[in-house]
Write a structure and sequence with these properties.
14% strand; alpha/beta; 8-stranded mixed beta sheet; Rossmann fold; 37% helix
């Protein structure tokens, strides 16, 4: 049997069944996109709470409405039982790839998943990894689980890094170009053809390792430039200059400059993590990554610097944090700078509360405690020595905050005019 032709034919006719493992901020939108393009999908996750909501046509991600899940429910089933992997033709891994406390790659989620599904893999399937990872890991880490198959002949392996940008009004999953790679030419062709059926543009590269490097490079580019502008902010602050005025003036140059803006640190599943993935593999190959490492360090040190500057200006005992999501108008708190702010303030014995219209409860392994969002009102605001704006959600009543707060630390340039009770950091 020609397994390559059979799978290619299924994809072309959209009769291939898609299995997506991991229904988070990457996996769930991808499952919906396949369903939108008339593929049948099984979405797998070990989180019982998520699955229970999805089976009731409810979303747990703010920018994905319930109506979208209900619209495509006839094409998507949600499962916790990995035995059902035997029913699918395409297996896409959308799993977390965090770093350890020692800044090393943590591929334990991928490893555990592969252990769970390896007994149910069969000839004619393809596995595609979408998670961020270091160059060489798809080949070295996943292919050993496929030793009973002939990769490229009767089983296929690809890598196609996600480029999800939640709540981006300009670019959607469908319109963002997709990088594709494969273990062999046959693997590449199947991966390319699959994504071509659901996305506007697919870009192929020569190897799995190249695609893995592309993913890291994209996000390290942002990390380095954010690190640069955060360092510029610290220098400008010492010189009593407005970094935002400086950036706006620099933007008038029509070439050779792209504006990045300072902030309280970086968050999400890529920018805080990817520099350490590349640094790790570079160090293993005896290459020093001074610029990449120090940019990441500057960004991760921003909460500490902002708190230090705040305490230098004002004695504080009780703080209200405004916005704990890592990005404006989202409910995603993965690697959010707010978590580090809370840790540092707690160590200094400063009382902390937060308000976020999108995040009702803040949970993190790093905090070892669940915080609940406080209601925002004038009386409540007056109770705090300091209000720190970390995430500038559109729904927030900034006029209320400005009028009723004793002291505000604005890390997002919410208040463009100079105000006596506002410190811009």
């Amino acid at each position: 049997m020609n397994f390559y032709s059979a799978l290619s034919n299924k994809i072309s006719k959209k009769t291939a069944k898609i299995g997506i493992i991991g229904l988070g901020y990457v996996g769930l939108p991808l499952a919906l996109q396949f369903a939108k393009k008339k593929f049948n999908v099984i979405g797998f996750d070990i989180d019982i709470y998520k699955l229970s909501l999805l089976k009731k046509d409810k979303s747990y991600i703010k920018h994905i409405p319930n109506s979208l899940i209900e619209k495509y429910k006839s094409r998507i089933k949600f499962e916790r039982n990995f035995q059902k992997i035997i029913l699918v033709d395409v297996i896409i891994l959308c799993l977390p790839t965090p770093i350890t406390s020692r800044f090393k790659p943590d591929l334990s989620y991928i490893k555990k998943t592969l252990e769970n599904i390896k007994s149910y893999l069969s000839k004619g399937q393809i596995i595609i990894l979408e998670s961020s990872t270091y160059p060489g890991s798809t080949r070295d880490f996943i292919s050993p689980y496929l030793k009973n198959f002939n990769i490229g002949k009767n089983f296929f392996l690809g890598y196609s890094p996600e480029r999800e940008d939640p709540n981006n009004k300009k670019y959607s999953l469908e319109t963002i170009p997709k990088i594709c790679s494969g273990f062999t030419d046959n693997c590449l062709n199947i991966t390319k053809n699959l994504y071509s059926k659901i996305l506007k543009k697919v870009v192929t590269v020569s190897s799995l390792e190249t695609a893995e490097f592309v993913k890291l490079y994209e996000n390290i580019y942002r990390s380095v430039n954010i690190g640069l502008v955060n360092e510029m902010k610290m220098i400008a602050n010492k010189l009593n200059l407005n970094i935002y005025e400086i950036i706006e003036a620099a933007k008038t140059k029509p070439f050779g400059f792209q504006a990045f803006y300072p902030g309280p640190g970086v968050g999400g599943h890529c920018i805080p993590v990817d520099p350490y993935y590349l640094s790790w593999i570079a160090n293993k190959n005896n290459v020093k990554t001074n610029l990449i490492y120090h940019a990441g360090k500057i960004n991760s040190d921003m909460p500490s610097w902002i708190i230090k500057e705040t305490i230098r200006k004002r004695k504080i005992n009780k703080v209200l944090i405004i916005g704990v999501a890592y990005k404006k108008d989202l409910d995603d708190t993965r690697e959010a700078p707010s978590i580090e702010f809370i840790k540092i303030l707690r160590k200094k014995k400063i009382r902390i509360d937060y308000h976020d219209p999108n995040v009702k409860y803040l949970k993190s392994r790093k905090l070892k405690k669940t915080y609940a969002s406080k209601n925002l009102n004038s009386q409540m605001l007056k109770k705090y020595d300091c209000v720190i704006i970390i995430t500038d959600h559109s729904k927030l009543d900034y006029e209320l905050i400005k009028k009723n707060s004793r002291f505000i630390v604005d890390t997002r340039n919410v208040f463009s005019k100079k105000l006596s009770n506002v410190l811009k950091l």
